[in-house]
Each structure stands twice: as structure tokens, then as C-alpha cells.
Records
---
Amino acid sequence: MAGATMNVRDFILGLLVRQPMSGYDIKSLLESLSWLIDVPSYGSVYPALHALLEDGFVSVEVVTSPDKPPKKVYSATEEGERALQEWLAHMQETEPSLKSFLMRLFLADNFSHTGLITHLNRRRLQVKMNHSAFEKLATAEAGDGDLGERLVRDYSLAIANAELDWLENVLERLS
Amino acid sequence: MAGATMNVRDFILGLLVRQPMSGYDIKSLLESLSWLIDVPSYGSVYPALHALLEDGFVSVEVVTSPDKPPKKVYSATEEGERALQEWLAHMQETEPSLKSFLMRLFLADNFSHTGLITHLNRRRLQVKMNHSAFEKLATAEAGDGDLGERLVRDYSLAIANAELDWLENVLERLS
DNA sequence: AAGCGCATGTAAAAGGTTACATGATTAC
DNA sequence: GTAATCATGTAACCTTTTACATGCGCTT
């Protein structure tokens, strides 16, 4: 769960390849996704930015504004872009979680066309597998299991169906 | 993200209140939910079990089977059940993430009827809020944003709609 | 006897949160 | 003058992962 293969640092790098931002901007952006993914605290985003800077993956520029306090805007360097590509490639096989799927999806522009399709397909297969597994359970155990189990099973089936529909729709549009 | 208010330890206690299980069983159960939530590693579930034992919230019993290696089956004690109730009550206001919603949902039997309805409603309101926010963004920015942003927005809307439908359906059935 | 699924455990290292400290700028 | 939003940062503490170590029982 923590200390995972996929850390905040790498996702933030991806965000900065998309466009220059400050630590505060990054936190705000992630906050808007909070109902789907966990949002890192400032105590984790600022140190990540410092580490990225130390590694030469990003550069800083202080931007002053007439009506706001000054902010440090970070941009990805060419070396940072290369590092992101490496991370994206290395991530291929691992991490089947919703969170990592969404992070990758948000970084769609950094994938090649076929790379993106591969990722969507991978998720599709995964959701499909889980969907089948839950369906089998649902018919085998019928009304079996306690309320919580039945609710989660039911919820999973409903969400999996919606996600599958969406994935297939997007995949079709992209082809 | 890690070291969060909601730790594995508490969720495992909830699982054990539902029914006695071994560390291996717990891991397997969680594995089946991996496409929605992060699964803790053994290096986190076994120590959690030991801590729960030390606190007197669970008890152990070694169960031998003719065709399988012996296993340690943990059961929640009465004190453990009380602790879970406390945790469930304390959790009320905090943690709006999908993960914590699902963990609570899985523990549905430990809620009172009205308590469960409250929790489902809370999630409904939250998803609805995020849905509205994304919809506003979608109309305001129209085709704005890069591909990743548009995909995540679109994905969120689709999933939120499915979840909202499901929540309303369940809420209706429970009333 | 090798390999696999079941089963439990630990220590070091990594990564994250909490709590705190600080300060600019706008609006009331 | 004070509350709110914007903005950055640190250190102690906590939790988790990683990597390793071990062993039973069944099948090939």
C-alpha cells in the first residue's frame, strides 16, 4: 500500500511533463480526483519535488504575480522526460490496481498510440477476469455470504460492467 | 497514503469479527478485491495479527487438517468487537476515499440498519458532488485539456453514474 | 526429488502522514 | 485587524513494502 513500486514522486514527474506546476497546484489537481484515488499530503509532495530537483529531472522558476504570493513553478527537464518514459515502460507488467490505472490514464499523452491501447486493453482484461470471478461466486454462492459480502459483490459487478462498457467504447474510438 | 488514519490492522479486525480466519485466508480474500483496492503484503498482515493478539482483540487457535499444513485461525474477542464498533463510529466523518467506503461496505453487518443507510448516503452525496464538479468542468472546458485529462474526466463521469445508480438502487431496497 | 500451493514469519529500508512553523495577499 | 486563500517547508513518527527465511503436504 505504501512504499509501493509506484510512488508519488514518479506520478508528480508525469504531471510536470504534462505542464509546469507548483507543489500547491499539484495538490489541488490531485484533490479533485480524491473520490477515486488517495491524495498525498504536502509533507509528501514538497519533498518529492525536492528529490526530483536534486536528480535533475525538474527545474524551478519562481513566478511572482501581482495579486498572489510568489510560487515555485517546476518544469520537467529532458532528462526527466526520459525518466518518465522509463518508468512508464517499466510499469508495463506490474501494478494492476485502479489507482495505477488512473495515474497512467491521466498521463495518456506520454504514451504512444499503441502503448495507450495496450494499457487500456490490459485493464479491460483485468476487469473482465475479476468480473467473471465475481459472477461465478455470485451464482455459486447464490444468496450466500453475509450482507457485506453480497453488497461488495454486487457493487463490484455493477462497476465492472460500467468500466467494461467504457473501456470498450474508448478502445473502439481509438482504433 | 500510507500510515493513514485507516490501517490494515483495523480492517483485519473487522474481517475477523465477521468470521475466524488465518493470515493466509485474509490475504486471499483481499486479493480477490485487488482491482478495486490495494492489497497489503504478508509483511503487513502477519504483524497486524500479532498486534491484535497482543491487545487482546483476537485469539488464536491452531487448526490442523489431514491434507494441509496446520494454520493459525484468529477470532475476534468481545473486546475486539467493542474496539471495532469504536473504530466504525470514529470513522464516521473522516476518510472519503473509495477504499474506505469499500472497507466499510464489506463490514456492513457490523452497522445498524440506519448506520448503514447513513454511510451509503454519505457516499452518494460525495459521488454526486464530484460528479457535478466534473460535469461543470466538462462543459466549461468543452474539448479542453489534453487527452489524459479528457479520458479521466470521461471515465469519472461514467463510473460516477454507475455508482450513483447502484447506490440509489440499494438505498431504495434497504428502505 | 522437484515443484507447487499452502502457510508463517522477520528485519531493513522506503515512503507517507501528522503536526507544526512560516509568510504573502486579498477581502471584510 | 482578522479570517481566508494561497504558498512552502520540516521532522518525528508510523506503516508498509521488500526481500529473505522456513517448512508442511501433495503431485508428477
Note: Confidence is low (pLDDT under 50) at residues 1-6 of chain B.
---
Amino acid sequence: MPELPEVETIARQIRRYFLNRTIKHIEAKPVKIFQNVTALEFQQALSGKPVQSVNRIGKYLWWQVGDVFPVFHLGMSGIFIRDKKQSRQPKHIHISFIFQDGEKLYFQDVRKFSKIYLYGEAPQFPDLGVDPANGEFSLSKLQELLRPQKMNIKSFLMNQNIIAGIGNIYASEILFNAGISPFRSSRSIKGDEIEKLFQSIQKILEDAIRNYGTTYSAYQTVEGQSGRNQEFLKVYQRADKPCYNCGGTVEKIVQNSRSTFFCKKCQS
DNA sequence: TCTGACCTGCGA
DNA sequence: TCGCAGGTCAGA
């Protein structure tokens, strides 16, 4: 599921509803998503402490809760659900954060691909590439990143060690917007194309954040609503449908074991 | 660089 | 019933 725009939407909403509120207690199930901490240790370390900050880098979400720093990677189907009405607990809830007034924040992950870590200091992400939604990302940075890479441009965009936050949906959408074929090698992208690619990365991600992310199946916002960005996708999941740009046919191929959607006429 | 594995649910 | 799904990692 969640790529940068979805994780950013979740971060903003958790900030809006839970920042500076104290977690009264936590119920965490002993599932494999806990990496460097057990569910019990996680419960004990966060209970009774305030949520002091909520941050995002790439597809990672991390909070400061008193003197500890939980880190969440949401995998394919991880979401947070705010439960104000004390309604019946949905299925596949692995963590319930219960706040002092009884309001709950659930962490749900149907497919259990998410990963949760706990640190005693602010986490570092040394292997993560540049986050395209922060100030460090620039045209010259993109130029510098592209130059040495032999891999195809779709793999480049999705490689979290190079650029952190782009996944399969937005990689296809970015390349369509930039008019660049997904088969091109990264180092073959030159001059104006780099500028177009840079602008497309920013535009596609910003638009998606503005639309609260893309709901294709599992993803929903903390408020329990679907994102709206799926209404604006140009190629993703539009195989055999007419290209909005040229009227040709959107194609679907399997590339690096992932589906890629593109228009042969518009992307070269 | 590629494939399979990790999981569950959904739609064809 | 089967194939596929927004991610990542290990192993070939």
C-alpha cells in the first residue's frame, strides 16, 4: 500500500489528532511485525508517555513518545485507524493505542508485511535515499543520482536507497507525466528530460498528498476515509484503456516482477 | 539482476 | 480456484 503520499497523509492526521496527547496504555499482539522489540516491551515502553512528535521520511513513520522512538514501515497494507466512538474493533488490529480520554488509535495490517522498531534515540536511516518531499531534493541532486545508474528508470525511481518514498503506483504515473519510457536506462536520461522528470516527481507526489493518497484496496486515512487520488491516475490500473493524452492504448507489462503501466506513444 | 517468500483478501 | 495486489529482503 502506502507510498510517500499515503504515509504523509497518515502522519499529518496522527499529528492533528494525537500530538501532545498521552498514551494511557497499549495493547499489542505478539505478531512478526515487531522487529527489534517484543510486543510486550513495546507496550511497556510507550504506556503513560506523551506523543511529542510525528515524523515521516520516505515510507517510514516515526514518533517521539517520551524518551522512546517507535518507527513504523507500513508494508503493503498497514494503516492507522482512529476510533472515537468506541466501536467494535476491526479485524487484523495488531496494536491499540488507548489515550487518556478513552479514544483509540489502532494499527491494522491485514497482510502483516509491516515492520515496527523501537529505539532509545531519534532513529537514523543511513541507507535511505533523498526524500523527494523535502528541501534536499533538487534538479542537480537528481542529475547527480541518475548519472551513475545502469538500472532502468522505473527501478531507479522505486529504489529506496536512491530516492525514498516512490512505489509502484507513483513510479508509473511519474514516468507517464514525464513522457519517459519505463525501459530507458537511468543514465540515458539527459538535459530537458531530467528537468521534466524532476518536475513530474514533485507534481505527482504533491497532487497525491493533496488528494489524501491513492486508495486501490486497503489504504484509508486515519479518519477512515478513502484517498481520492485514484480518480486522477492516468495509467496505473488502466491497462487496455485509452490514453488520456493521445487516445492510444495504455499497456501493462511486468517489469522487475512488478506491473508497469505506460503509453507507448507518449513515453519514449 | 531476478525470483520467491512473506501474508491475506478480493475479484475474475 | 487461481492469480494478483501499493513493499522489502534473502538467496540464487
Note: The CA atoms of residues 77 and 111 of chain A lie 6 Å apart.
